[in-house]
Specification:
The protein is 20% helix and 29% strand.
Amino acid sequence: MYLVKVLNKDSEIEGCGSFAAELIPKGTIVFYFGKDEKYISKEEFASFTSEAKERLYKFGVEDEWSNWVIAKGDVNHSCDANILSLFVNGIYCEIAVRDIQKGEELTIDYGLLYSSFPWSMRCNCGSSHCRGTVGSGWPVSAQVQDQWNSRINAAAKEIFTVPQPLFSCREEKAKELARAVKSKKDPCVFPFIKFSLISK
């Protein structure tokens, strides 16, 4: 569920993308999995046809327990993404790692997303940092991992200095995430397998 205003429209990267409908400052929690997302259990997924599974591979996100989530809106991959994945007390969310201007496309690095199976895709991001191919089980250099770490850490330090739409959201999962974020008095990131918000 987006916590900021977005528009879905044609993307120069691929297909349809999500675009900022307002300025999104660095450190803003942009998205979390809430009530608007469709959840598919691993048991339900196992009963899907090959065609339905292929659609999920393209448009869904798998969690560590092999359940699937289909989020509203499409966020394209970029090797120079402006939002990155973050876990707070095990709750998945996405944080703006730089200021995102109104009208700018939101992008995430697919290399940070969990997958129980190997996959890869050609990258169309056009960034000067483009890795050419991204996926799960695809090698990621120490330099890229350091870049993720430094960007998420710098964004985490801004969490309490920017207006945080999460803190006024009344949806139950959002309130749980807000409590978890507020418990990190001096936020920083622990980069082990997945990036988790902790307190120093």
